[in-house]
Design brief:
Radius of gyration: 20 Å
Number of strands: 10
Largest sheet: 5 strands, antiparallel
Number of helices: 10
Shape: globular
Strand content: 5-15%
Mean pLDDT: 93
Helix content: 40-55%
Low-confidence stretches: none
Strand order of the largest sheet: 1-2-3-5-4
Length: about 300
Amino acid sequence: MPKDYFFQPDVPDLTLDQATVLALARRHAPQARAVTGIDESGGEARTYAIDEALIFKTQRPNRLRPRTSQKREVFFLQQLEGVPDISVPRVVGYGREDGVEYTLMTRMPGTAFRVVNPTGVARRQALFELGRTLRRIHSLPQLPFVQSRLFPGDHAPVDVTWRFGNLFDDALAAIAQSSQPWPLDIPPVDIARRAMWALPDADACVALHSNPGPEHVFVDPQAGQFVGLIDFGDAYISHPVLDLRRWPAPDDRCALWEGYTADAPADDTLLRTWKVAQIIIYLSVIARSPEQRAVAIAEIEALSRQI
């Protein structure tokens, strides 16, 4: 996969003063009154809550990287604005001032999935609704995304094949570095080769969120119900199933897939590609997640027989 590099890692990572944040925010929302919180949990981004209703987002200067783009996120959110049954932040304003690139957007209600960590029926239903939302996002007209020239990624079957091959390489490297012995009779490289041989030519490449995982999915903190999806800054174009691989537990991914196929069934190509993507997931789990290792071994054996 493309390697991350940072433009200016030695630049001081300074927090903007509240007066500057409010002055910039008021260009787009004159009613803005006060900065009510600062969040740095996103790593690359720093966000300032304004009146608990708006989010003023900046990129941390020492964490600037090509893979992340505020302008790309703004474009994506604007394409989603007004689309029925898709809950994402709404862009209020965007600009650059004195070297500061910023986005002002509405605050997503609720709390990150990873904080609430719902269980049982609530968890399954939240992931079902996430899957349904991702399918609707993937069904948008794609020409505007391509013509914007803001989205890196894959535009032909060979590009997708190359990406899947790199993902298998990453998983195999993690297995080689693991202290745990390989648990199956068939070597992991043979599993990867068999899966790549079974990978069909991609018949669709779409704009992906990139990481619709527990940190970017928001739910109601009491009921655990799905509320919406945030952070489209790492978006790229590739095969739709790559947006479904951030949930390693089989039950989670089953609920996600049921939601993804609820409004439109999966054709044979989509289903076959999804099986290959899951093999990548399970190889990575075997290498990195001891607590889920036994389940991953059983699942990869079953999938290997299906391809």
